[in-house]
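Good day; I would like, with your permission, to put a structural problem before you. A protein sequence and the structure tokens that stand for its backbone fold form the material at issue. Thank you for your consideration; the sequence and its tokens are set out here:
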Amino acid sequence: MERSEIKAIVENILLAADEPVTSERLAATVINGMPSSDFESILEELKEDYSDRNLQLVEVAEGFLLATRR
């Protein structure tokens, strides 16, 4: 699976989630056994993608979530 596809899947999971999602959970959901470090770089890309939008990718103690800006 290509990186852009994985990024789109991660983004959709975060949009659909009703609670924070850990990078480990994302890795297990998308590709079982993929290192969480790979998802951390994808999450960083998503943070940058959302930097000029009304939504933002937020890291909380329990994981990551998409939230509206204040």
About this structure: The chain has a mean pLDDT of 86. Residues 3-16 form the longest helix (14 residues). The first strand starts at residue 55 and ends at 60. DSSP finds three helices and two strands in the chain.
